[in-house]
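[Q] Does anyone have a clean structure-token version of this?
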Amino acid sequence: MFLAAITFASCSSDDDNSFNIDESLIVGEWTITDFDYDVDTTTSFEGQSITASATAVGSNFDYNIIFNKDNTLVADGSYDVTLETTVAGQSVGTETTTVSNIETSGEWSIDGDQLTFSGFTTGDMNNNGFGDDVSKSTSTITILNENTLQIVSDFEDLEGSGSDLPDGAELSVTGSAVMTLSRVN
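[A] Here you go.
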């Protein structure tokens, strides 16, 4: 379930788009240099709630994204992710997994400081743990210059409508992910 969170299926920021981004700066090829996220979930069923938390840190990046002038994108590559999980306050452990053979394409647009994209993911696009909207996301651009792109995805109030929960169960998800990319060309 936590892997679906890293697909950047996020809700739009409540920011007022306080600054505009020079959209032409995003065009080109970028490589991920840093990626981490923190996510908290609460599952409620028949009056009982279970909380879980996960912290993930990416490493060994070989993952590139090309933002084309025609607002299409292509992303491919691999990376490792180390996930530390707790459930009901108890450590479940730490596990490192290699995510490989990611090959996706989609579209992108910028409105103010909001980057909306489809097809750009750091996980398996077939993982529909958070419903059909998992392939379209909006993130806040916190840095965009000729060399660095940083986006923050907010998982606030993300609901697990597509997850395999019993009837009557509810899942709420909060947290954020930060991804930093460096320009390749």
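[Q] Thanks! Anything notable?
[A] The mean pLDDT is 81.
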